[in-house]
Design goal:
Layout lengths: L15 H8 L7 E4 L11 H7 L7 E4 L13
Parallel strand pairs: 1-2
Helix pairs in contact: 1-2
GO molecular function: ATP binding; helicase activity
Protein name: ATP-dependent helicase
Organism: Streptococcus pneumoniae
């Protein structure tokens, strides 16, 4: 699917490491939309480390999540 020209490419989060390694420093995407962004919050995870490599080549990063982000114990 990556060999075909398209406006939008959709991959699952398990393939983030693969696609980052595949393109390396020739990252062709100017925008990334992360669904379930909370699954990328651990900075020690391979998924997070891979995605971090794309930052110099990406203009926009949009994070989507349905996970609440409490301000304190009263918000839970």
């Amino acid at each position: 699917a990556l060999h075909k020209t398209a406006d939008v490419y959709v991959i699952n989060r398990e393939n983030v490491h693969w696609i980052v390694e595949h393109y390396a420093k020739k990252w062709p995407f100017d925008m990334i939309v992360l669904d379930e962004a909370s699954s990328f919050k651990s900075s020690s995870s391979q998924r997070f480390k891979s995605l971090r490599k794309t930052i110099p080549f990406t203009n926009r990063l949009v994070e989507l999540t349905g996970t609440p982000s409490p301000n304190g114990l009263l918000d839970i």
